[in-house]
Amino acid sequence: MANLELFDNYVVPRNAQRENILGWAKSVVLLSLGVFFIYSIASGNLSNYINQRFAWLSYVAAGLFLLLGIANAADILMHRDYAMLDRSHAPISWKVIAILAVPLALGLLVPSRPLGSAAASGAVSLSAASVTKATTFTTDPLKWNVLDWLRSFNMTDDVNSFNGKQANVTGFVYREGTFPDNEFMLARFAVSCCVADASAIGLPVITDKASQYPADTWLQISGTLKVGKFKGDNWPILQAATITKIDQPEHPYLYP
């Protein structure tokens, strides 16, 4: 009887008790993951991680985690009679539970915030993904975002054709050490699937008030495009006429 203990009038093997504890731990982790996904969806934090086109996958994941957690807990409760425990399945290990718990721990411990200047780390691009000669723009150019303008720039053979065009764009302030005092880039992150494939893009801006806006400040800028030298190339640069500080958008990323 050294390896046995009495429980609910049954002689219960200690390894069965261990599996019971592991089973409850698994249920707690699965249910917590489901609740975390629901919270991320309800709070809007989900948009900090993925392209909104794929948000439905998070709804599916939340439902599956909750169902699996409930099913696992129900199985444990229904088999409180340890003599009836199904031993046909492989035993749960702490390693498996730890693997499930890692993304939950990261989600809880790492603050949810969108990518910014620090993530760009000197790699803000003037090119735009998914640009082809077949790309068309049907909206008013004053409604174009940074990605739309870069696509348009990269489609043309003559950047001078943008001289004098009016633009009204939003983004966050990005600077590099080599930029003149009156210059910064109005940047956004383009996300195809999730932040793992995010790429920083930006539109050069010139204004005498550039020093008033720290990095990562969100701005709405309207003005006129004028071709000038930027990083050694001729490129349309936005000559700022009006600059307005704004709150970070609900959906801070652009989606190619």
Task: Write down the secondary-structure element order.
Answer: EEHHHHHEEEEE
What is the overall number of helices? 5
The radius of gyration over CA amounts to: 27 Å
> Which strand order spans the largest sheet, edge to edge or round the barrel?
3-4-5-7-6
- What is the terminal separation in angstroms? 67 Å
Helix-residue proportion: 25-40%
Shape: elongated
- CATH domain class of the largest domain: Mainly Beta
Q: What percent strand?
A: 15-25%
Largest pleated sheet: 5 strands, mixed, barrel
Mean of residue pLDDT values: 83
Per CATH, what is the topology of the largest domain? OB fold (Dihydrolipoamide Acetyltransferase, E2P)
Structure in words:
This protein has 256 residues and is of the alpha+beta class. It folds into 2 domains: 4-109, no CATH class; 117-245, OB fold (Dihydrolipoamide Acetyltransferase, E2P) (Beta Barrel), CATH 2.40.50. It contains 5 helices and 7 strands, in the order ββαααααβββββ. The strands form 2 sheets. Strands 3-4-5-7-6 form a 5-stranded mixed barrel. α1 runs antiparallel to α2 (55-78) and α1 runs parallel beside α3 (94-109). It is elongated and about 75 Å long. It starts with a strand and ends in an 11-residue tail after the last strand.
Write a compact overview of the structure shown.
The chain is of the alpha+beta class and 256 residues long.
Keyphrases for this structure?
256 residues; OB fold (Dihydrolipoamide Acetyltransferase, E2P); elongated; 2 domains; 7 strands; alpha+beta; two-stranded antiparallel ribbon; five-stranded mixed barrel; 33% helix; disordered N terminus; single chain; 5 helices
